[in-house]
Write a structure and sequence with these properties.
globular; MetI-like fold; 77% helix; 281 residues
Length: 281
């Protein structure tokens, strides 16, 4: 065996130090991101009146109180309903707008694309105040319907951006072939474009639902007596901290996690199956 030269030892040491440094930085980043979630979930099982160390328990009493709280359960149902409706409308409108701008020569298409994604750069506070003024001017009172409209406003740019980025030239070939065979525009859209776009559509729906499900600012401005879950949690916080708030926050996190896992399983699982079944060259 040849002896290691001094420069080889130095290079190996630098690689080890670099790898260790990278590992530490990544670990600290994950700790910074997930430590609040871990604390939130842990103290939702705390057997005490205030969620502070040392941990006592575990107990499920706080979850029983949540399930027995009619106002909290009503707010949860409102959040789920608004999330599903706004995600569906945002994805539908975003896809139709993306399809129109990607497949047709529209005057000022560049400006329209910029205008559609512009709300992504605007603060939710500004959007909420603007919607409150605009809806009051039109006579629409503060309500869950107004909240849903607000969530469509903030989610539509995201849905449009996702769908537009996935409308590539590979779909045009199939769309033209379908038209040559006598398919109408509606048939091309429903039987060719939508099936080829369904991963992007599903991703858009999941992201829009998650953004709507735990959105607070716009829901706070536009709701009245019937509120969403984040607004209800905020009203609970005004009376002080208790593990019941941790339990409610855990439910919010859990539903977001379920939505994310559904996306991962359906999208990336399908890609993995396609990769296994692809014919070898």
């Amino acid at each position: 065996m040849s002896e290691l030269r001094p420069q080889d030892v130095g290079s190996l040491g630098r690689r080890i130090v670099g790898t260790a440094g990278t590992t530490v930085v990544i670990a600290l980043a994950y700790l910074f991101i997930f430590l609040p979630v871990v604390v939130l979930v842990l103290f939702s099982f705390h057997d005490g009146r205030v969620p502070v160390p040392p941990f006592q328990g575990p107990t499920l009493d706080w979850y029983k109180m949540i399930l027995g709280d009619d106002r909290l359960m009503s707010a949860t149902g409102h959040s789920v309903g608004i999330g599903l409706a706004s995600a569906f409308l945002s994805t539908l409108l975003g896809f139709l707008a993306a399809f129109g701008l990607a497949r047709h020569a529209v005057p000022g298409a560049g400006f329209l694309r910029w205008f559609l994604v512009l709300p992504l750069t605007v603060s939710y506070l500004i959007i909420g105040i603007g919607l409150l003024i605009a809806l009051s001017y039109t006579g629409l009172p503060k309500s869950l319907l107004a909240v849903m409209i607000g969530h469509v406003v903030i989610n539509l740019p995201l849905a449009f951006a996702i769908c537009f980025s996935q409308l590539g030239g590979h779909q045009v070939v199939y769309e033209r072939a379908a038209r040559d065979l006598g398919a109408s525009e509606g048939q091309v859209l429903m039987r060719i474009t939508v099936p080829m776009m369904w991963p992007a559509l599903f991703a858009s729906f999941c992201l829009c639902f998650n953004f709507s499900w735990d959105e607070f600012v716009i829901a706070f401005f536009l709701s009245n007596f019937d509120v969403t879950l984040p607004v209800e949690i905020w009203s609970m916080l005004r009376t002080g901290l208790n593990p019941m708030i941790n339990a409610a926050g855990t439910l919010v996190f859990l539903l977001s996690l379920i939505s994310f896992l559904a996306f991962e399983i359906l999208i990336f699982g399908k890609r993995a199956r396609h990769g296994r079944t692809a014919p070898e060259a």
